[in-house]
Specification:
single chain, alpha+beta, D-amino Acid Aminotransferase, Chain A, domain 1, D-amino Acid Aminotransferase, Chain A, domain 2, ten-stranded mixed beta sheet, six-stranded mixed beta barrel, 9 helices, globular, amino-acid biosynthesis, EC 2.6.1.42
Length: about 450
């Protein structure tokens, strides 16, 4: 089966590709497809199965094991690729370590990409994935950006579903709605040193136990959080929600022409120093800014949204950074928030005022101005790990912004959008985005 075509990307509300895609990424896709006629394609129908002989106990939700984020389910899926033969038959086998050479490309040149999505146990006892096809399409784009092999996204989706069907029944019991975190990953295992296009790669998929990260993580903060700031700049916010520390000019997460749009490991490692500093000062995450103008981009590894009243028109707006410069990740949750808001908040509903959905560049001064004018309504982060997480506090170079949370724990729009998504993920609303997985008993 030939790989599915990469179509044109819009503002994040339809199929994930981009009409403004860089020539470099498109060249990578063309190069990968050029050899597909002589290489075996990724084919889920060839998958072999070996069941574990040492099954492990399922931890309780929010237990120390889950909070440690190290526990995976009993099985994983792997598939090897070589430049000579293409994709070998995938394997569903016991979860465990695998061996790569010390000279493997991934260890030296960051030739690695991955995806993050969740498997849900719904209130109706069914297993569901959320818009899994978008994750598979995005992983193909990420692979192209770092010269990893091409694949048909539909075959990756089949492999994901196979693992979920196998381990979902045990690790998400029917009497306990919840989720597992899915991590499809591809690494270059080519054992040759030298900066060159990898000739060998490994695709693998794992399911991990993960905590609920949609609220403040309880970072090690100074004592007595009373809504002020210590002389050393430590946060003492009184409001609920995530606490964000705006990045400094000397700390940049992504830049135009780079790879901020791709979910590659090299996007994350360099951000850990800033994240560690934020946690040490009592914040949950970094609010990433770009340029001397301080354009607002992302919150940690999540997309960032703000609701404010437009100064000129007086209308409420739901605002987030645009995709055109390719310095933010084209989040699946981001696209879903935008689409639902456009469909369901175009008019006032149940006493909730309508909002205009806007994708545009905005700067920290815009947020500060809205805050001072009383036009700032709420803010939230959106992503797979954090889901929809209200933001309660932002520290920006000596300035403190207490973001309103009208309902105490959350703002009205944050709550409503989060509930709509949860209803799709957990089953109360039947929707095409909620993909039911037929589990193996």
């Amino acid at each position: 089966m030939a790989p599915a075509a990469v179509s044109a990307e819009s503002s994040g509300t339809t199929t994930p590709t981009t009409k403004s895609a860089s020539a470099l990424t498109q060249a990578g896709i063309k190069h990968m497809r050029a050899g597909s006629s002589t290489q075996a394609p990724l084919d889920a129908s060839l998958m072999t199965t070996e069941l574990t002989k040492s099954p492990r106990a399922v931890p309780e939700p929010e237990s120390p094991e889950v909070l440690a984020q190290k526990t995976c389910t009993d099985h994983m899926v792997t598939a090897k690729w070589t430049v000579e033969s293409g994709w070998e038959a995938p394997e569903l086998k016991p979860y465990g370590a695998f061996s790569i050479m010390p000279t493997a490309s991934v260890l030296h040149y960051a030739t690695e990409c991955f995806e993050g999505l969740k498997l849900y146990r719904g209130n109706d006892r069914k297993l569901r994935l959320f818009r899994v096809s978008r994750n598979c399409e995005r992983m193909r784009k990420s692979a192209a950006r770092i010269a990893l092999p091409d694949f048909d996204p539909r075959e990756l989706e089949k492999l994901i579903k196979a693992l979920c069907a196998r381990d979902g029944a045990k690790w998400l019991p029917k009497d306990r709605p919840g989720f597992l975190y899915l991590r499809p990953t591809m690494i270059a295992t080519d054992a040759a040193l030298g900066v060159q296009r990898p000739k060998e790669a490994l695709l693998y998929i794992i399911l991990a136990c993960f905590p609920d990260m949609s609220k403040s993580l309880g970072a090690p903060a100074p004592p007595a959080l009373n809504g002020t700031v210590n002389g050393d700049g430590h946060a003492k916010p009184a409001s609920s929600g995530l606490k964000l520390l705006a990045s400094n000019e000397d700390s940049v997460r992504a830049w135009p022409g780079g790879f901020g749009f791709a979910k590659v490991g090299a996007n994350y490692g360099p951000s850990l120093v800033a994240q560690g500093e934020a946690r040490a000062r009592g914040f949950d995450q970094v609010l990433w800014l770009f340029g001397s103008e301080c354009y607002v981009t992302e919150a940690g590894a999540s997309n960032f949204f703000v609701v404010w009243r437009n100064k000129e028109t007086g209308r409420l707006e739901l605002v987030t950074a645009p995709l055109e410069e390719r310095i933010i990740l084209e989040g699946v949750t981001r696209a879903s928030v935008l689409q639902l808001a456009k469909q369901r908040l175009a008019k006032s509903i149940e006493g909730i005022e309508a909002v205009d959905v806007v994708e545009k560049r905005f700067v920290m001064d815009d947020i500060i101005s809205a805050y001072k004018d009383g036009r700032l309504v709420e803010a939230f982060a959106a992503g797979t790990a954090f889901f929809i997480a209200p933001v309660g506090h932002i520290h920006f170079r000596g300035k403190e912004i207490q973001v309103p949370t009208e309902e105490g724990e959350s703002g009205v729009y944050t709550r409503v959008i989060k509930q709509w998504l949860m209803d799709i993920m957990y089953g109360p609303e039947e929707h095409e985005w909620g993909v039911v997985v037929d589990e193996v008993a």
